[in-house]
DNA sequence: TCCCAGGATCAAG
DNA sequence: CTTGATCATGGG
């Protein structure tokens, strides 16, 4: 734990630096956070700082992070505060570093990804220069990831994020921090299971997605659904299990599997991916979304999720 | 006013 | 196995 050397720990405020050496390849924090991934609501932005709240070892931690430098030569500055009632211990800082490493995919070997497909795929390679350092974000909470994925269906990125924030504000636990600020956690399944669609809709404007959100929550509460049972399942088995759920079709299932459950093989096919893949890989021919997803998995294998992320961002940026 | 957004679902063909 | 209509909601 070399980074512990520069850890400063006062009563309820601490900070540390994640050095460039522990990150496998380049990182573009801004591009990564703002790329519309669905594992959890987008982190809030304050100038050069992104911030979010995560409960680590039972302690709510509000952290901010900023990348200093460029994608190839940088450090990550991290500052965090805790609940005003709970003084953090050194373990909290260790947990936070581990959490960030996980959610930002800092151990994903991006240079290997670039090297491999610069050689093998000149379509995907076109997306590399402008997106250098873009990483997959992975959630830590399966329930949160599933609900966020359901919210994203037939919705815009900014609207499903707004809905998720309203969900937190109205139904999530409120946590106060030492700087006087307060934040809302993501609601648990018990809370959402008790709601009725009308009141949920009126407070979050999630429209017809209210019903599946409540139904899935109730299934978990009633032990009809156990998301942790996905662990160890093959991609196909896990996906078939998810497709049984209301509000979960092929795209939402793949979003959950990729961003929430770390199935790197999953490649969610939305309107953007469908357009760009049929244009560049099928010469503009009409292809079904199922074939598009299968194509991405077969061509990019364990990098299918990353290929999808780069093609998606490129397609939106260039409006392909 | 119509069309679209990181779609899902159901009925028909 | 594909196509079309419908489903809320806010933004362009």
Written account of the structure:
The N terminus is likely disordered. β1 and β2 form a beta hairpin. The longest helix is centred in the middle third of the chain and has 15 residues. It is built from 14 helices and eight strands. The termini are far apart. With 320 residues, it is an alpha+beta fold. Strands 1-2-6-5-4-3 form a six-stranded antiparallel β-sheet. α10 packs across α11, α12 crosses α14 and α13 packs across α14. It binds a DNA duplex (13 and 12 nucleotides) through α6, α11 and α12.
In short:
The protein is α+β, with helices and mostly antiparallel strands and 320 residues long. The protein has 14 helices and eight strands.
Query: How many H/I helices?
Result: 14
The dominant shape is globular
Instruction: Give the class from helix and strand content and strand pairing.
Output: alpha+beta
What is the radius of gyration?
20 Å
Please report which band the strand proportion falls in: under 5%, 5-15%, 15-25%, 25-35%, 35-45% or over 45%.
5-15%
Rounded mean pLDDT score: 94
- Biggest sheet, in brief? 6 strands, antiparallel
Low-confidence stretches: 1-8
């Amino acid at each position: 734990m070399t980074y512990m050397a520069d850890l400063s720990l006062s009563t309820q405020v601490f900070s540390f630096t994640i050095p460039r050496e522990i990150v496998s390849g380049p990182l573009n924090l801004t591009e990564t956070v703002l790329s519309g991934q669905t594992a959890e609501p987008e982190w809030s932005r304050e100038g050069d700082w992104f911030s979010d709240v995560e409960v680590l070892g039972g302690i709510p931690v509000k952290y901010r992070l900023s990348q200093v430098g460029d994608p190839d030569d940088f450090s990550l500055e991290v500052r965090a505060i805790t609940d005003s009632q709970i003084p953090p211990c050194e373990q909290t800082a260790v947990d936070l570093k581990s959490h960030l490493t996980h959610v930002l995919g800092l151990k994903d070997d991006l240079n290997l990804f670039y090297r491999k497909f610069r050689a093998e795929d000149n379509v995907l390679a076109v997306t590399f220069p402008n997106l250098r350092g873009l990483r997959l974000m992975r959630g830590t909470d399966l329930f949160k990831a599933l609900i966020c994925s359901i919210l994203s269906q037939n919705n815009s990125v900014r609207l499903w994020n707004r809905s998720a924030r309203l969900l937190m504000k109205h139904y999530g636990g409120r946590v106060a921090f030492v700087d006087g600020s307060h934040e809302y956690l993501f609601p648990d399944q018990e809370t959402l299971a008790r709601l009725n669609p009308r009141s949920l809709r009126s407070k979050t404007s999630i429209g017809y997605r209210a019903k599946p959100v409540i139904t899935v929550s109730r299934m978990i509460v009633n032990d009809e659904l156990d998301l942790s049972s996905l662990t160890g399942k093959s991609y196909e088995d896990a996906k078939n299990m998810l497709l049984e759920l209301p509000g979960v079709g092929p795209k939402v299932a793949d979003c959950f599997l990729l961003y929430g459950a770390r199935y790197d093989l999953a490649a969610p096919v939305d309107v953007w991916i469908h357009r760009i893949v049929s244009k560049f890989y099928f010469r503009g021919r009409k292809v079904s979304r199922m074939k598009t997803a299968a194509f991405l998995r077969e061509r990019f294998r364990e990098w299918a999720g990353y290929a999808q992320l780069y093609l998606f961002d490129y397609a939106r940026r260039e409006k392909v």
